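Workshop exercise sheet. Pairs work together: one partner reads the sequence aloud, the other fills in the structure field after running the prediction. Swap roles for the next sheet.
Pair: D.N. / O.F.
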Amino acid sequence: MTTSYPAAVTEAMLEADQAFRTTRHEARRVDLLVALSSSDLRARYGRGSWKSLKWLLDPFFATGVYLILVTFVINRPGEAPGLSIACATVPFQLVIASVVNGLGSVQARHSIVLNTRFDRTLIPLSGVITETIAFGSALLLLAAMMAVYGIAPTLAILWLPVAIGVTVLLSVSVAYPASLVGLWYGDLRTFVVSAVRTLFFVAPGLVALDQVPAGAQGWLKLNPLTGIFEAYRSVLLYGHRPAAWQLLYPMVFAVGLLGLVVPLYRREQRQFAKLVEG
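Structure field:
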């Protein structure tokens, strides 16, 4: 018993040291992630007192004008059509903004990619964090649309953070391949953005899923955006819990895509300096 005690103490000390090193490493990764996201935000909103106003107005200029037309000018059928469309356009803005950010994310940081050793797998993630902060102001459009149509929130609103979390996860999953495509095939950036926009129209973006012919609904459900759009509508428009598939399918799709692309990204990050310099 006595002879095994020093070995046990030594093992415990080694485990404690390993835990400390792991914690310190993760802390450095978090600090780097914060630094990358902060630089993104400064580049987008500047440093002056107007940055908060710009943060609030950006989503209005992106989708707010169209929602005003749908709500007050164009007579569209259906239940609260402006809110229904907002439940699609608002989360879609985060997804496509993450793709656009990812396409140029490595090139935008060419100076540190060339001159600094760091974990480059954090680059797409930091871009999505930036877009998520910008996305926060877009949520005000959803609240505004609910107020315009006189739709009071129900207990289902508690599912909104879950829907937002799934949206962020999907955005992260598409940011990684977008970053690689933007680095490898820069000439295809416009095509990629157009392809992502097309996904909006092959999902129930302009009309709710229940207004789509039954024969097409099954095909539209293959698009992970469909579940996200319908989840927002369930929570904000219909006032009930989202169906399981509306959250689980986009989540599984995102995790599967990350499982395929992140190992590739981690392997290829060693070549980023050569590609950026070239």
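Discussion prompt: The chain has one domain: 50-277. What would you look at next?
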